[in-house]
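[09:14] KT: can someone run the structure on this one? pasting the chain below
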Amino acid sequence: MTLAGISMQLVSEKREARSEKREARSEKREARKG
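[09:31] RB: done, structure tokens below
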């Protein structure tokens, strides 16, 4: 793996983690409404 490949992987992992957090937050909001 090149340095560029490693950094790209890290960025994509961070993005995935962020989207997962956002989904969890929206699920909590829905649960509160219900």
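[09:33] KT: thanks! The mean pLDDT is 94.
[09:34] RB: yep, looked fine to me
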